[in-house]
Amino acid sequence: MSDLMVFPPSDPRLHLPLERLRAALAALPAPPRDLGTVALVVERHPDDARRTPAVGVFAPGEGLRGDRWSLSERRHPEAEVTLMRADVARLVCNGQDLSLPGDNLLVELDLSAENLPAGSKLQVGEVLLEITAKPHTGCLKFERRFGADARALTALDDLKPLRLRGIHARVVSGGAVRPGDAVRVLGRG
């Protein structure tokens, strides 16, 4: 496991303006629709600390073991695991650590509503995930880390179907996930 990282306050000089974010997003190659890869596994800890383990262990009803969700008394069953496109994370992070968005899995895969409607099944390493209907929207923490324009980008009407802020999933069957593991779409909706 990697060491626990605690991040200093975000540097506003790294926050990109909306126009630049939109242009950079438009220049990204289309993400794979059926078969992608895991770029990073992220455990979130209290006080916004992060750990990026070489192996993440997921279990039904627990999400990612060691993650603050699994330790919380107020767990939302449709939000066991969060996923975000790795290329979008790189864009908004703008040089900051990729674990900063706080999603459990950064993946190279199309997370759009068209590609992965609620009920879709993903095989991620050894883990079977089901995409839930719970929206994953940008919060004030996301805005503090990446700026108001980054949060606005994820909420633009024409971009909302892309789910740039990410998606929620529940663990159907558990196991291990490692960076570099395949992400396979097993079924849609």
Quaternary structure of the protein: single chain
Care to count the β-strands? 12
Q: Please give the CATH class.
A: Mainly Beta
Main beta sheet strand tally, sense and closure: 7 strands, mixed, barrel
Uncertain spans: none
Instruction: Work out the count of structural domains.
Output: 1
Strand order of the largest sheet: 1-7-6-10-9-8-12
Examine the secondary-structure arrangement and name the CATH architecture: Beta Barrel
Provide structural commentary.
This protein has 189 residues and is α+β, with helices and mostly antiparallel strands. The chain has a single domain, classed as PK beta-barrel domain-like (M1 Pyruvate Kinase, Domain 3, Beta Barrel). Helices cover 20% and strands 27% of the residues. The protein is built from five helices and twelve strands. The strands form three sheets. Strands 1-7-6-10-9-8-12 form a seven-stranded mixed β-barrel. A three-stranded antiparallel β-sheet has the order 5-4-11, with no helix packed on it. Strand 8 and strand 9 form a beta hairpin. Helix 4 (140-146) packs across helix 5. The protein is globular.
